[in-house]
Amino acid sequence: MKNWKGIWIIVVALLHTLFGISSFTKELHEIGQQGFINGINNIEQSLAAWFLLFGCLLFVIGLLVLSIEKHGQAAPKATAIVLLVINCLGVTLMPASGFWLLFPPLVAMLLFKK
User: Fold this and answer.
1) Every domain of the chain and the residues it spans
2) Among 5, 27, 45, 108, which is most buried by a count of CB atoms within 10 Å?
């Protein structure tokens, strides 16, 4: 499969978001009850929001990589390097996390032209 890196990142983003929704159901419900504008009132709600926002950003990154791949191009090396550095930081700070799932596409983005 030629265009797998963007799809991989999108799948990880979707899994991340679904895991966040199932893990932070109570907190997300509280945010909805309080109203979304200035609706974050404690650290657990902040974690829920950041977890879901990161999933959304990861999804957008996956869409961009997929679009680049579909046009027969490789993602810019600088993008892959920055994402890899962020991913390494994530694994260092939270070894028991899903950050490990992003190594295959990021390494492939660095090693292979397409």
Assistant:
1) 4-111
2) 5
